[in-house]
Amino acid sequence: MNQLQGLLDTLEEAHQKGFISEKCKLIMGDFIQNYGEAVTSSGGDLQEVVNIFTQYISILKDLHQNPYSFEPYHEQIRSPVDYYQFGLDFTRPLIAEDQSACLGEENLVEIEKHIKAKENVILLANHQTEGDPQLISLLLEKKHHELERDMIFVAGHRVTEDILAVP
Length: 167
Prior knowledge:
The protein is mainly α.
């Protein structure tokens, strides 16, 4: 886990330069270590963790200098940083795909029929974490790519205001 020390040093530097608060640094430090353990304990690549968090810290620095102002509705931001792809890449190493299942897939097929018929479809869910949209997208990406790509999520205030959740 020595590779993670470089990330923790980068986090400390970001804190010293005022890009992130002490609280944010502590939360991120613990999260980096726990994330690294989760990925490596399932046989994942620690270098992938370093790459993901290097990008994440860079995004946090940029958001500190150039905060994003959320509108009530906005299109996916795909450049200059592809936040959508970053969210998927960030979440993917945490999923044990061989142990995961999509239940109720017949409902997804039915939803896709309604969408192709130009009908509206609304899914309501009380998700508990900021990662739920990414998890749903990863679950749908292989068999239901259009649904995954075109789904619109509603974000609460924490997701639009908390610097750790915004990316």
